[in-house]
Design a protein that fits this description.
It comes from Bhargavaea cecembensis DSE10. The protein is an alpha+beta fold and 117 residues long. Helix content is 24%, strand content 45%. The protein has a 6-stranded mixed beta sheet.
Amino acid sequence: MEALTAHILKLETALLDNQVRNDPNRFGPFLDESFFEFGKSGGCFSKADCISAGSLGSVRLNIEQFRLQTIGEHAVLALYRTVDKETGRAANRSSIWKSDGITWKMLFHQGTPVPDK
């Protein structure tokens, strides 16, 4: 499980890289065809929405408290917090990743803002 956790963390980290986020040819392969997201903004986005927008939007985030839970034979739930490097604002994040036996793809993602104290 340790190797899988490191691998999924690497995939999540890649999706926070602005060079990846701003190029559909780079972020598209990470997303399952049925991917959808409930964004931190409150919006709901499909893979097609993201590809047609041409970007996932630029971010400057650090990942904290990353952990993984198995939810099926070929599926895991990634749970973590991000902290914005500029504003210090945090968001709780969850992603479902599934494997076809060769490649892991993100099926679902949700970002929920953490209220300021």
